[in-house]
Description:
31% helix; 6-stranded mixed β-sheet; globular; GMP Synthetase, Chain A, domain 3; alpha/beta; 545 residues; Rossmann fold
Amino acid sequence: MxxxxxxxxxxxxxxxxxxxxxxxxxxxxxxxxYPPDFLVPAQANLVDVLFQRAFLNGHADRPLLRSxxxxxxxxxxxxxxNRIAQVLTEDFGLVPGNRVLLRGGNSIGMxxxxxxxxxxxxxxxASMPLxxxxxxxxxxxxxxxxxxxxxxxxxxxxxIAQARGGTxxxxxxxxxxxAPGSLAARAAQKDGRFTPCPVAADDIALMAFTxxxxxxxxxxxxxxxxxxxxxxxxxxxxxxxxxxDIVMGSPPLAFxxxxxxxxxxxxxxxxxxxxxxxxxxxxxxVRLINQVxxxxxxxxxxxxxxxxxxxxxxxxxxxxxxxSAGESLADATRQLWKEASGIEIIDGIGATEMFHIFxxxxxxxxxxxxxxxxxxxxxxxxxxxxxxxxxHGSVGRLAVTGxxxxxxxxxxxxxxxxxxxxxxxxxAFTQDAxxxxxxxxxxxxxxxxxxxxxxxxEVEDALLxxxxxxxxxxxGIPDEERGMVVKAFVVLKPGHAGDAAMVKTLQDHxxxxxxxxxxxxxxxxxxxxxxxxxxxxxxFKLRQP
Length: 545
């Protein structure tokens, strides 16, 4: 496939060139391939395109954002998005290309904030709600946001990070409608008359952070064109949602998986999304699916396994599509859910660097044990270390090209992810003669636990800051419920006992420093760690039973 003919690229509307100037050299970019029918004008604001599409298809009065206290139509949502864009540009003087940090769980307020930022031509930098001050400070240092929009319930850690210095000067709270100075109070003073920023399609819309295996945050950037191209790939060919669908799920909007599935893709279709007032438990999700009449569910394999008993007991009569991604889906979990609900899970593999899913299969095309086949619009192959395709059935590294691809912000690790124009997501696969891909393992030290990515070195760094720890190594080990769990192997300093009390002490220590999902659920005490003659930690030995 060759890129379509498009009009010459206009002068960028992004006056702040911070992100553009820190992109990798074009020679390190992945090769882009677009389907012949994918035509995006050279000037295209992602959010403006989404709303224009909805209005042209007659969806202005249809519901878009749902919660228990309020439901907003597409027209209502656009009005609120425009008011937020006015606040950012008129009250704070932000100019296109400025970064805005977003911190919040899944809520209507978070969705409106994200859309308002991009509508104004700014770069959305969403952060996970569980991150601690140290992790937020790393993101602030990398992205250099001009302003932050933060859920009022999550202000404390961000304010601690802000106090450490950096470019972040202003934090505005949302989901705090009656508070003076809040985003809602400021937006209420605006008239909603805002012209979407006329950005170039290749201007940057979002910056998505992923920790990688080193614990040092990497910022993957995606343009307006990238996200629009993703809308024409997996949602169109595999998910095939309709305007009557109601979407629910647990992936955070700060994940590209959640951003696509829980906001962008429903808007592209004309569907609606339900956000609960509080977080989900497996039982609560099943009950809310029935209460809300949800037809599409996104969550991790761990949750599907835990939900199965409640689905069997209560039924899920309106639910028709279930999507799993973020970690490996065991066939046992897939069959358990199918037996309980009657629904074949749509499995998929994507990456923050690629924005969303690029290998998957629709329910009627699923094959046991396989993630699926390459999504139309993408090309994938299994290769050896020299990039040569391996025979069917042989284990190798996954390489992908398509309409989206990896571009890291100012990061030498670009050279590890993109080679000869191909993206290497870091997974080992086999492929059969029918084009189905079978996941084998991560080919690096990433730990994926219940859908969350955890870098072992980041947890090691936190443990090493405890005065009782002399050495440590952190790896992921298989777990039936969570896919993997974080396990730490610790060498204590003399005078400290490796007992249950010390296990709890070290776990609490990590929880206080990092997001709670990163703490080691298992800790083993050892007299020494396995190392090479040069002192390199042999992690593979720690993974052995």
